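Example record used in the benchmark description.
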Amino acid sequence: MGNNMVRIDLMKLIKYVLKRIWLPILCGIIGFGGYYYHVAYRMPDTYTASGTMYVYNSNPNLINYQYFSYSDVNSALALVDVYTIVVRSNKVMDVVAERLSGDYPGIQPAYIAGTLSMSAVAETGVVSVRSVTGDPKLSADICNAVMDVAPSEIIRVVGAGNIEVIDYAMVPIAPDYRPAKRRGMLGALAGMVLGGGVLLLLFLMNRKVTDEKELTESYTPPILSSIHRSKKDQPDPKSFMLTDKSSMEKSESYAKLRMNLLYSLVGKESHSVEITSAISGEGKSTVAANLAISCALGGKKVLLVDSDMRRACQRDIFDYEKTAKGLSEILIGDCTWQEVVRKGSVDRLDLLPAGAFPPNPAELLASSVMQNLLKELENAYDLVILDMPPINIVTDPLVLSQNVAGCIYVIRQNFSDHRDIRKALIESEMTGMNVMGFVFYGEKVNQGSYYNRRYYKQYYSKYDYRRNMAEAVKRQQEKKEIH
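Model output (structure tokens):
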């Protein structure tokens, strides 16, 4: 029935990201601007002072004659890491802090250690000692104090090698260079990565049905028809009705649904069909009304029953009074169906209103009165279409599972949730409800590589008899005016 495996469609992910590419771009712009502003204007200036020392592990008298081996250099390089640890030790930092305390009262050894760094220069025995602070003189003083104190302490602790100061640190005259643009680009990259990560997370968390392919790959019931839903900011229920002025694409979509439904009913004892959905707002009432109209236009005698006694919708579509008696009054014995049935918007279509809201709709639908009513209606009509409440909200559609030919689920694009669909299908299976198929209802219906929207507009419109008839009448009128 359903496939719970989580699979990522790479092409769908790419399309999802491309449609929302503005988010990573926006995050990149914000990241660039924020990081650039922080580096250029918010970060305090820093000053770096540096001095150099020479570390050697051979006879110092031979160095002036450039007589030393590579093993001596390698040994000196190996000692650099050790020297760095010794220099940052508490003992050395305490001595340096004591020396600087006269000019900088309260300076802490931990702060001094945090400003220091040491490294070998170009893989030689020359060691660069650097101090970075917000005060140029302090940076130079720290660096020089370390170079004065560290050598003797290093030699005492390590017991190997020798150290000589080459250059003491000078007070820097300009603050350190801050690559604001480069840091801004890093911020932009981080922002775009963050935006892309958010899109990926939203894609993985999205459980909405986006296209027909998801239904065919995830569930067993077939798609009976894909119907285009018009976008409207404040939709009027009557504006969704199928009329002679509806587009050819819409008419043919309902004609396909009608054909597949009637084919599914061949050989079945019952010809009552429920139109329902997993949750509210998926368009089941609209689909039920237009399917009834299409079947009536196709020559069938159809009865559309507004079986959603809790929240009747057909009265808004067909514009009849809200106080009209209907199904609820029939089931409590207040009237007969012949007394309350009314004509629809087209020939061979009748409507049975929902009636007043009863306190026990599910019990009324499960009663023997409802079973007998369905039999009478099936004897009087070729097709009985029941507009039922959502299956995950109430049990009304399930109580009739043994008295109807089956049900059709309306799936609204980018609205219906896979979790709700699976739950509804499980409940249908448990009660023995025959799920005849899905109706995919959405703003962007994929008609395939050939039967697409352009095809309908440029080619299939040639077969629109309504347009051809109007053009023929217009030509006849022009001829009469000429004569």
